[in-house]
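Allow me, if you will, to draw on your knowledge of protein folds for a short while. I have a record of one protein: its chain in single-letter code and its fold written as C-alpha cells. I should value your view on which stretches of the chain appear to form regular backbone elements. Thank you for your consideration; the sequence and its C-alpha cells are set out here:
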Amino acid sequence: MREVVCKAIDAVEFSFYNDEEIHAISVKHITSPVLFDNLRNAVPGGLYDGALGPLDKFSSCITCGQQPINCPGHCGHINLMLPVYNPLVYKNVLKIYRSVCIYCHNFKMHKNRVTLFSDKLELISQGRMVEAMNVVVKKVENEGDNMEEIIQGGSFSTGLDEEMGEDGSSYRGETGDEDVAAGKRHFTASQIDATKEVISQFMSSMPPRKCENCLAHVPAIRNEGVGKLFQLPLPKGSLASNIMRGLKSVINIASGNDDTERAKDEDVEMEENDISENAIEEIDEKKIDRKMRETDQADVRNQTKFLTPSEVKEHLRLTWENEERICSLIWGAQEAYGLLTKSKKDVCGSDMFFLQTILVTPNRFRPPNRMDDQILEHPQNIFYSRVIQANISLTESSRGAKGDLNFSKATALWLNLQNAVNALLDSTTAIGSKADAGGNGVRQLLEKKEGLFRMNMMGKRVNFACRSVISPDPYIAVNEIGIPPYFATRLTYPERVTPWNVQQLRDAVENGPSTHPGATHVEDEDGKLTNLASLPSYKRAAIAKTLLSASGLSGANVSRGADASSDVPRSGGKTVYRHLRSGDILLVNRQPTLHKPGVMAHKARVLKGEKTLRMHYANCSTYNADFDGDEMNVHFPQDELGRSEGYNIVNADEQFVVPTSGDPIRGLIQDHVVGAVLLTKRDTFLTREEYMQIVYAAVVSSTSPTLAKKKSALGMIERDRPIKTLPPAIQKPKQLWTGKQVMTTVFNYITHGSPPFSMSAGIKTPKEYWGLNSGENIVLLQDNELICGVIDKAQFGKYGIVHAFQELYGCAGAGKLLSVFSRLFTNYLQMHGFTCGIGDLLLVPKAEKERRHKLRKADKLGDSVHAKFIGDPETQADIDVERVKDQVEKILRAKGEPASNRLDRMMSGALNGVTSEVNNAMFPKGLMKAFPGNWFTMMTVTGAKGGLVNFTQISSLLGQQELEGKRVPRMVSGKTLPCFSPWDTGARAGGFIGDRFLSGLRPQEYYFHCMAGRDGLVDTAVKTSRSGYLQRCLVKNLEGLKIHYDYTVRDSDGSIVQFKYGEDGIDVLKTSYLTKFELLADNQSLVSRRLGKDEMQTERSKQKDTSSQSKETEVEEDMALGGVSPAFNQKVEDFLKGLPKKELKRLNLRKSRQKDDFKFMMQLKFITSLAPPGEPVGVLAAQSVGEPSTQMTLNTFHFAGRGEMNVTLGIPRLREILMTASENISTPIMTCPLRSHLTKEDGERLAMTMRRLRLVDLIETVDVGEIPFSVQQGIPKRVYKIRIKLYSPKRFPPGMNLTLKECETILRDSFIPRLEKEVKAATRGHSKQDAIGFVPLRDLGEGAGESGAGVDDDGVSKASKKGKEVDEGEQAEDEEEDEGDEEGADAEKRKSQGTDERGYADEEDDDEKAIAKDLLQEDELTREEEVEEEEDGAGGGKANDNNGSGDQQANTEEGITPMKLKKLKTPKRANDNMLQMDGSTFEMQFTSSQQTNLVLMPELVEKVAKQVSVRYVKGIDKCSVIETKDKKNPDGPPLYALQTDGVNLEGFWALHDDLDVNNLTTNNIATILRVYGVEAARQTIMSEVLSVFGSYGIGVNPRHLSLISDFMTCQGGYRPCNRLGIYSSPSPFLKMSYETATTFLMDATLKRQRDNLSSPSARIVMGRVVESGTGSFELLQNIDAFIDGKA
C-alpha cells in the first residue's frame, strides 16, 4: 500500500454550536440579501462573498488561497437582532415551558420528587439498573388546596431517605473515571430504554396547573404553529390566590443588537406583554416605533398574552439555573457524567433551544446554476435571503422609529423573522409565502430516500463498475462471468510492477488502451499519472521499458530465482492501470439484493465479439434472474484485500448453500435436467465415438492446459489429471457404453487424487412412472460408480448428488462438478435432440370418456353441497333446487361474509376432490404417449420445467378459480356473471372451470380465469413494497448483531442477545449433513481428510496410550471449547446402537476402536460446523425472513382457513408480529386441546358454551310498519310498529338451555333501550325542532364486523345493507359523538385516512402506524365504555351545560378538555304495553315527533339485533372444534381441540376439567407476554413466524427465528422492529440512517450523545470498515523485520 492510515475517526459527539463557536468558525458576517451586482460580481457581505469560497473553477479562494478543487469551503454567519426559536426543537421548548413555574422558576413538581428522578437517572447512567428500579417516586393523586399539608407531611418519602445526603444525591460518585478515560463508557440499549421511561414518567407526572413548590397557579399555554405561544388567562379564583400570595412573574430581558454600534449592556426590566391575538396577525409596512411599549399590571388584567422568544428564553434560563442537575441529566446526560471527551464544559444550557446566530454554508454547497446568460438562484439562497431581509426590516424599524415602539407591529416583524428561519430549517413549519418557496429546508435535505443520509452516506456512488443485459452461456464455468471487450477495455486495475509481472505489464503498456489486454495509465513513484491514450506506440514502448527503471528499483539485480525477493529493494514502484483480463475476480449483483448470495464474486472471462454479460444457468436461482431482459451490475475490486476476499470468501462456488434454510440454491435447471434424465435412464447406449466425444467435451475445459517444454523443440500439453475411460458395457455385436458409465467416468475424473465417494438418494419422479420394481427410483453410487437411478431435479437439490459432493469435496469441487455436468448434458442434448408435440398432450379415448363422466358429476355436485349448507340431507333425488336457492339467499343475506366463507370452503373442498379424481385417472396412464416417450411428461415430472398443474390445465381441466383465497364473489343480485341465474348452485357459476386449454375455454370460463390472473398481478404490485419495507425494518434493527469470540451473539453496544447462536452455535450453512451419519460413515476417509482428522490421529493415539479414558474426554472437551453438545453426542450414540450388524460391517464400525474413531470424527465435524466469530447473524436473520416474504405476495390470503376461523397470514401477519409488535392483532385465535377422554361431541358441547349468541341469530323474520300520522294524547306523532318473530325453541342452539322467557327479558331490558338510543342518535342534528333533546353516548359496538340483514317476508320493508357499510356508519357516528359539533364527513375522512392502505413509501407507512396507534387507543376507550354501559344496563347522557357549545370546538392540542357527559340511570323495566308476546312473536312500537326526520327503522333494528348478545364470553366471538395430530404419534387417531375467534385465557382456565390448559396456545403474543412471561412470548414469536412460512411451504432455519425472537424480548418486553424499537439503539447514526433523520439527530444533539461507531451504519456513514466478518479483526506485521529482510 502506498498510503498508510495514521488517523481515523474514533467517535462522533453531538451538540449545538453556541454563538461564540459560530463566530469562531465563520469567516464572514453576511449582511446583504443581494447576490450579484450589475456586473455579475459577488456582492461583498452577500451570500456569495468570496471569503466563503470560489464560485468558479478558475478563481482562487480568498480565505485559504487554494484552488477550487482543494478548497473545502468556508462558513459565514448571520446575526439576528432578536432571538428566535429553533424550529427543529420547538416541541421540546413547548413541553419544557408547560412544565415550568413562571413564578419560582422551578419545575412544577416538588423538589423532593425531582431529586428522586435525578437520582434514578444518575443511577441508570452509571449502569446501576437494579438500584435505579428500587427508587420509587410516589404520585400526588389530587391537586388541591391542601398542597402545603402534603409537602409538610413528607408524603414523598420512598424509604431511601436515610441513604441520601443533605443535597439529596446519595447515588452520585461512582462514575468509573478510569473507564471514561479509556473511552469505554457508553450507554447501552437497556440504559436508553430505562432513561426514556423515567423521562416520560417525569414529564407525565408534572402537575398540570399548580406548582408544588411555591403553590402558585400557573397559567396554561396555547400554541399556534411554530413560534406563537400564548399565555391563557387564569380563572378568577386562581388569580386571586396568586395575588394574595404576592406572586408576580417579572423577568429581566437584555435588549440590543451586538452587530450594531448601538449595542448596550444595560438591562431593561419588562413584565409579560399584554397584547391581543389579532394584533399578532397584523403586519404594518410603516416604520415601527423606537422601542416596545411597556405594559403594567399584566397579571391583574388577566388577558391572553403573547410570549416572545426572549421571555421564554429568560424563563428557561432561570429554570436551568435552579434545576441544573435534572436538566443536565435529561438534556445532556452523557456530558454530565464525563462520557464526552470535551475538554471544557459546554455552557449552552437553555440557549440551545433558541437561535440568534445562523451559520451560512460555504459557496460550494450552494453553487449558482447558469443557463445561457442567466444565473439561476440556488433554492437555499432564497431562504437565507429572506432571513437577512426580515432581520434588516426588524433592525431598521427599531433604529429609525420615533417615539415609542409599536409593540404589535414589532411583534409582527419578529414573527416574520421567525417564519423565515422556520422555512430555512424546516420548510414544513413555515406559513404563507415562506412555505411556498418551493425549496427544501435543512430537515428536508436530510430525510427520506433522497436525503443526505440514505442517498449520499449510506449509498455510495462507485467507479470501476459496469451494467448490462445478461445472456445465458452453458459453456463457461458456473463461477465465471462473461465480459464483453467493451467493458474489459474500460475497467482497469492498479497493479504494482514487480519482477514477476513486469513482462506482462510491459505488454499491456505497449498495447495501450485500445487493444486488449492493455493498459490506460501508468503511475510513477511520485503519484504522477501518464495517460497512454494520447501517446503513440513508440512512446508507450519506451515507458514500458522503464517500468523497472532505476527510479523504481535503482541498482536492483532482478533475479527470477527463488532469492529474487532478497535482491529487490523494498521501496515503492510504478503502478500500471491494466485492463480487466480473464481470471480477475468481479463482484456481480442483481437488484433487488434480498439475501447474502445476491452479491457473489465471479471470475472474469473476456469473450471476444460479445455485447452482453454472459452468465451460467446455475446462478439463476441465486440471483432470482432470468434472461428476458434482466440487467446485472459488475464491480471490479481495486485492492488485493478485496480480490483475496473475492477469490476465497465471496466466490460464487462458496455460496452453494443459502443461509435462509441451509438448503442448496445453486443447481442445473430446465434443459440440463432433461439431458440428465435422458442420459442416465435405462436403454441409453452410446457408441465409442459418442462416448469419447461427450466425455472429452465435458471435462476438457475444466482445467487450463500448460505447455511443458522438453529437451526437444516439441512440447506437449499437460493437464493436472488424466481422463480414464471405462470398458464398454456391451461388447458384441457392437461395443456400447451406457449413460451411467459416462457419469462414472466424470466422477472418476473430478475426484482424481481423492478417495471415491458413495451415497444413495431418492429421485423426484414418482415411482409409478419408471415402474415400482424398475430399480430406477433410488440413485445409488458406490465408489464413484453410478449403479442405478436416474439423475433428475432432486439430485441438484437438498441431499442430492451435488449437495453430497459439496459436503465431501468442498464448494470448489461442487462448482467444478456443476460446470462439467453443464457441458456434458448440453452436448448430449445437442446429440440426442429434444422437442414436444401435440401428441404429448392427447388422452386415449377411454380416458377422455372417463373425464367427461366425472365432470358431468361435478355439474350436479353444487346442488348437494348447497343443500348440505342449508342443513338438508345430501340425497340428490330429494333436492328442490329452487327452495335451496331461496334458503341460501336468506342465509347469505342474514349472516353475510362468515356464511359465504363457509359455503366457499364446502364447495372448494368438494370440487378439489373432483379435480384430483379426474387428474389421477388421466395421469400417467391416460396419455396417448407413455412416459418416458412423452417429452411433456418428462419435463413436468422430473422437475425440469413446470409441474403437474401446468400439464393438467392443458390436457385435463383448470379447476376452481380463486380470488384472494375465495371463490368468485357474487353481486348484490346473487349472480357471479349476468349470464348465470341468481344464487345459482352450479359449480360453474362459482368459478369452477371444467374446460382445458387443449380444447379451449368458453367465454365465462375465460373471464373467470382472467379475473384470477389479474388478482395475482395486482397483489404482486401492491405487496412488493410492503415486503421490502418489512425487510428494511428488520435489517436496520438487527444489523449490529454478530458472533463474538466467546460464541455469544451481542449487539453493537455489547449487550448479550444469545449466549450461543441458535442455542447450539452451529452455522446454518453447515447444518444439512451434520446429523446424516450414514453418509458420513460411508465416506469416512473423505470426511477425515477434509476435517484434518488424520493429522490429529497420531497425537490422539499417544494421549490414549499415556492417559486414562477420562483424560481423553477432557482433551476432547478442550478441543470443543467447552465440549460438544450433549444432544449431538446422544444422537451419535443412538445411530451406532441402531445399526444392524450387517450395516456395521459395511461401514467398518464393528470394532470399538472404529466406533471411537467415528465419534472423534463427528466431534471434529461438530467443532468445524460452529459459526465463525464475526458472522453478522443479525443481517442474515433479517434477510432470511425478508427474502422468503416476497414469495408470499401472490398468496397473502390463501390458506386462511383454520377450522371455521379466518386467520391473517402472509406479509400482514409478519408485519403484526415483527414490525409493529401489535398488542391488538386483527384476528386473535386461541387453541386448547381437549382432555384425552373427551370425544368430538363433548367438544361441540363445550364450544357451544363459548360462542357469542346474538339476538340476530335467533330472529326468523322482522316486519317494520309505519303510521305516518297518529294522535297520541292530543299530540300528532309518527308511529313505528315492529314485529319480531323468533325461531321455535327447537331450533335454538343446543346445549344452551335457552327459553322464550329469557329472550323476552333480553328484548325488554337490552334490545328496546338500545334501539331507543339508536333512534335518538339517528334523529340528532337532523332537525332543530327535535322534541328529544339529549346527547347520545358512544355506541356499544358489539358484533362489529358482522354482516347481514333482517328479512321481511311480507314485503313491508327490507334491510339489506352490507356489513361493511354498517360498520362504517357506526364508526362515523362514534367519531361524530367524540368530536362534538364536527361534521360527519370530516369524521369519515379521518376514519378513511386511518384505515385505508397508506401507499408504498416508508414515510407513509410511518404515518399509517401513527394513525393506527391512535385508533387502537380509541378502541381501548370504546371497550372500556362498553363494559361500563353493559354493567349499567344501557348508556346515555347529556352535557352538564348546554350553553357555550361553540367553545367545545377548541383544539384539543391547546389543552381544552371536552364537556363531560352524565350517565343515565339504569332504565326501568319496560311495561307490558311496550312489548307484547304471542308465542315466539314479539311486537313493540315507537313514537316520534312529526317534526323529526324519517328514520330507516329496518336498518336500526338490524344493527341493534347484532349488538345485543344473548349469551357470550368476554372477548370470544366464535368457537369451534378442530382436529389435530398427536406430535408423538402422527399416524394415530386424531385429537380434538377448541379454537376460538378471540382471546380470553381465563375463559379456558375455567374449563380446566375438560381442557388441557397446559397446552393452551394463542397467536396474541402480547397476551402471552402479559400472562405467561417473556420466555413464553419468545417461543410464541418463533412458532407464529414458522407457522406463517409453513402455510406456504417455505423453509426458514429456526436459528434465524430464535435470534429474532431473542432480540425482540431480550429486554423483558416485546420490542417492535420499527422506529419505536430502534430508539433504544445507542448509535445515533444508525437511527438517523433509518428514517426521520432530523428527529433522531435533534434527540442526539439535545442529549449530547456520543456515537462510538460500533454499529455498521455508523461506520458506513463515516467511511470506515464495518466491524463484522473480516473487519472484526486486524493483522499486525513486523515492519522492521520485513524491511530487514527477515520477514
Q: What stands out?
A: The mean pLDDT is 77. The two ends are 17 Å apart (CA to CA). The first strand starts at residue 12 and ends at 13.
